[in-house]
TrEMBL record:
It is found in: Membrane. Pfam families: MIP. It catalyses: glycerol(in) = glycerol(out); urea(in) = urea(out); H2O(in) = H2O(out). GO terms for molecular function: glycerol channel activity; urea transmembrane transporter activity; water channel activity. One of its GO terms (cellular component) is basolateral plasma membrane. Gene3D superfamilies: Glycerol uptake facilitator protein. This is Aquaporin. The gene is aqp10b. InterPro entries: Aquaporin-like, MIP, MIP/Aquaporin, MIP_CS. Keywords: Membrane, Transmembrane, Transmembrane helix, Transport.
Amino acid sequence: MSYKVNYSPLLRANTPAPQPCHKVRDVANSSSMKGQTLLGQTDGGAVFCGSGPHLWPDGAEETPAMERLLRKCRIRNRLVRECMAECLGVYVLILFGCGAVAQVTTTQDKKGQYLSINLGFALGVTFGVFVSRGVSGAHLNPAVSLSMCVLGRHPWLKLPFYVFFQVLGAFLAAATVGLQYYDAIRMYSGGQLTVSGPTATAGIFSTYPADYLSVWGGVMDQVIGTAALLLCVLALGDQSNASLPDGLQPVLVGAAVLVIGISMGSNSGYALNPARDFGPRLFTYIAGWGVNVFKAGGGWWWVPIVAPCVGALLGTLIYELMIEVHHPPAASELQTSCQEATEGKTGLELDGVEPACEKPTTG
């Protein structure tokens, strides 16, 4: 007996195979079992196959209503799907990161310390990457997207869309944290939404420099921190350098953010990400903190936007020039270069000269 079941892409990949179909039949001829049902194998009748679509007597399949609804919601445009994934990935990052800052701040370090904030952002990055990497590549950062475009690994045409949705995700996450901690923020600040001072709360959402830090000192801080981040990210993604298990990469990206926060966070809060800072800053401007969010720190707001982009390009250049360009060519690359050399030969070849198409050697 054969069983025909169509699996939907909306089902989990590890959904168990459907069990053999059984017929549900009433036992009508037994006075002791009248009205009860038994499960028995059948070649006909109404059958139910595991958790998959229902098979009816005429062979038609009944798709669950929720699955039909989800199919109607499916977006086929690839760019839209990628942008949605970036938006949700950044949302997860900021939800956990700024949520950790809100808890530590409003409880006055009674329910968390600075390390709690580091862990919040690190794990936020980790789960944000898990959420979006299969769809968009999990950039989660305009500076990373810019670097990928410069390397030729991401289309320039998609860059503005990625950036917009990354900022949107950060804005929505900041709004969620503001809603969740609304009462706590009001209690902590005495009902005043301030940007500076002993009960300032704008720093829950975006970064501000320490009192001793100059603007140009902050620029250097963000350039160095973001360059370090890109060095780590590119190394983790470089299969020719060190091949890692697929599921381990997001964890190590989060670990890179953690160590940067531990070692480089005191100057200005290690934004490292224009979307991470500007989206929440825009939320605080709208939500009641006012224009001071753009004036504080000597007009600090542009530093976490510009400096991370410069730092990302610097880190990318350093890694490419010192590590990646020196990898031996892969066999496929060598074959392509040999074909190009062969096709470029003319009828006036030099005697005894052949293209150098040897296999790469190790050592």
